[in-house]
């Protein structure tokens, strides 16, 4: 099924794109992450220009998070106060990200920066998650009953920030500056990498802010929903690289994939799921690290002036 | 086709002159890029009429060139164990598409100087380098660009792509991949004998995005804000519908 992408300016196999979106959808259903960290590199690998890939992946993540936000808000799984503070930070971050994007593009270093960011972040988060998942699994593997209940505390740096607010749904009394800065960082990443940032946001909310577990995924999706909308708009206005046909195909796949993912998530044990996500994240990080060190197929790249 | 016929009829009179006459035609003067576009096959054909008394065999070379654009070419180098862009070189007129087809390998038809003058090969594209970089380095960047675009199917060379029948009629087929840039393409045909270009003629081909595809591009460029809103609305609608499906399932 040949589909012509008007903005990317080339013809692709529509089924491949739908399947790719489907993979992302399975991930979002399984783990509550947008899956943009997988879509963007795969699209680039398929031959879509990097800017178009990042812009259109952001649009897709919007769609992927809507249903998640609706589902979580139905069972009070969204801390709107916390989420809105993060969205505020995210919008500032997206604007900073747009400026950075243009600067790095002019310097010709956007690709290498994106790759290094991927390796650093996926590597460290993957390792963190892997340790956590193995820690949770160990007692049950050794036959010592359920995992010990861990009391979550937020990072000492967070506690030292001034002007505390009460976030009832998250069970926190912390300065709004912490989620604002966190949202800002994720906003920058969304703009640069076309990722929703869920894979960064979820662990940061758990381990740095210390939010209670039942609102983490919903609030993260809420933040991602709004920040990817702003990102889509910023791309539409500045880079003009949002390919609506590409985004539509990706969405079609992820809508179906998400159902699949949720089905699996209902049956599998969460510890194993987290272990699988950690392994996936580490594999992608290693693959990208390898890509940085190995001579690329193309030494030369062409950019219009 | 009509001008070709007219010229064929007029051939005896035209033949009074010393140079051969070229009558080029293209199968399509307009290529429409619409949904499902996977590339186009362009047939360039015509006749070459020798002047009276000259019983020469001509070689035909066809050059199809897409719109040119200024580009910056970057070269990756290994720095601190990481491959990243290091050097860069600017060229003011890189054609977005360039295809050469000839009845024999160009090197057998003309010498390098002539080939360079008429751009009869991907090695001879006039890229108009700008900035002050030494010629050797510029040549390296230029060949990097050519190699990259050849791989993408945007630069082509077919040394046996022109078929000449009866020494008069010629035809060449050039494939345009789906990733071609839109704009005005020029097809130049050269009749060559004894290492000299004796006649040349040009034809124009318009490559345009039409239908929904053309409108998408126009809206994205002109009404970016509306386009952004549309993209967001689409993703929200599809996500919402998915949510409804979840709830039911």
Radius of gyration from the alpha-carbon trace of chain A, in angstroms: 19 Å
Low-pLDDT parts of chain B are: none
Residues in helices of chain A, as a percent range:
over 70%
Percent strand of chain B equals 35-45%
The main β sheet of chain A shows up as:
2 strands, antiparallel
How many runs of DSSP E, i.e. beta strands of chain A?
5
Number of domains of chain B: 1
Task: Give your account of this protein's structure.
The complex is a heterodimer of chains A (305) and B (249). By secondary structure, chain A is mostly helical. In chain A, 72% of the residues lie in helices and 6% in strands. Chain A has one domain (2-142, 153-293). Chain A is built from eleven helices and five strands. In chain A, helix 7 runs antiparallel to helix 8. The radius of gyration of chain A is 19 Å and the shape is globular. Chain A starts with a strand and ends with a strand. By secondary structure, chain B is α+β, with helices and mostly antiparallel strands. Helix content of chain B is 31%, strand content 41%. Chain B has helices spanning 2-14, 106-109, 112-117, 135-151, 211-222, 224-248, and strands spanning 21-26, 30-33, 40-49, 59-65, 68-79, 82-95, 98-102, 129-130, 155-158, 162-165, 169-176, 183-193, 196-209. In chain B, the strands form three sheets. In chain B, strands 2-13-12-4-7-9 form a six-stranded mixed β-sheet. In chain B, helix 5 crosses helix 6 (224-248). At the A-B interface, strand 1, helix 3, helix 5, helix 9 and helix 10 of A face strand 5, strand 6, helix 4, helix 5 and helix 6 of B. Strand 5 of chain A pairs antiparallel with strand 5 (68-79) of chain B. Chain B: InterPro entries: CHP02186-rel_TM (IPR019088). Chain B: It comes from Erythrobacter dokdonensis DSW-74. Chain B: The chain crosses the membrane at residues 225-247. Chain B: Keywords: Membrane, Signal, Transmembrane, Transmembrane helix.
